[in-house]
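Protocol step 4 of 5: obtain the predicted structure for the target chain.
Materials: sequence only (see below). No template structures provided, no constraints applied. The aim of this step is simply to have a reference model before the mutagenesis design in step 5. Sequence pasted as it appears in the construct record:
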Amino acid sequence: MSVSDPIDRLLDAAESGKSLIKNRDILHFTYIPDNIQHRNLEQEQVTQSLLPILKKSRPSNLLVYGKPGTGKTLVVRKVISKIQERVEKSNFRIRLVYSNSKEETTLYGLLVSFGRQLGLTDKELPTTGLAISEVFKRILNNINENKINVIFVIDEIDYLAQLISKTGKDILYQLTRANERLNNGSLTLVGISNDLTFKEKLDPRVISTLGEEEIVFTNYSVDQIKKILKERIEEAFIPNSVSESALNLCSALAGGEHGDARRAIDLIRVAGEIAERQQSENISEEHVREASQKIEENKEEASLKSYPLHEKLVILAIIKAGGSSTGEIYSSYKTLCKTVGRDELTQRRVTQMLSEIELSGIINGRLINQGIHGRTKKYKLTISPEMIKKAFKDDLTLQDII
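Step 4 output (structure tokens):
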């Protein structure tokens, strides 16, 4: 067996136990630590808000706000699991249900997920085909017949507010007023939002019933992130495997952005994976920088992949034309359309697309004075053509060009 064989080398290292991370689960965003640092007040507020359910009465609807990575979901899930433990010992029927709006991209999907967790079957609640009001009616009947007291947590509720149409807004209103339709059992809503202005997008009738109580989670400071990270590192990594400078850099990068503890944990996890692949003895500042770049690239690549075909063609036209004016990009775009056998859009629409793509930061445009010929806008890419080609390589239509 040749030791220089890359597969054998990695498998040998894995077998010899040379691993810096001893427990990956602790670095996953769903992990709930026993001690949630710097969030005692918020844990008390959420607990007090939901306490009435233990006294066999209905809690107020609750809205929890804060930027991403400030511990909102963590605290709500921890409070709910602690209540669940106590409730299992009593004969008062309580169900705690959790759904994330970003994962359930439609109101229908969200309500079906809610119903499933209450025990409604495929037959009672099919995944498609019913009117939303009918789905809601069946959920309420289930609560009523089984006399259940439900706490329904909707995470990233701001995402749902963007998606819902007129019927959706009406359902959200009915959800907040569900108790008027229940003779037995009860329904309490807990909304978790990353957007403090999210209420402005809602029907005023919904606001008054949804936000009966509100709790705001403030951003973590760099120092607080460092303490949170230190605790996770002690549990997740083998001793002395993370250098002090790597810890400081992770905290600074995540704290400087907007006090996002989740980003700090992601950074140290990816840095750990990079260090392991390089067979390093420990995680250095350099590994954290590489991790930061990798996370950013992954985000950009995902956003590039989601572009519609013609926007992809416009981006490729910029590469072909090389830092050029709108007119040059348009003629390059027309050539690409011919190559892939698609009808071209008008120059006006392509100019509009360039402005939309510019907003995402992938390209940069600046106005150039051309004397008697007036002004024109020239565009250039802010990311490497290689990265764009890598993101587009799976698009079958574009394979001939790339």
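Step 4 remarks: The CA atoms of residues 221 and 259 lie 6 Å apart. The chain has three domains: 40-216, 220-303, 307-398.
Proceed to step 5.
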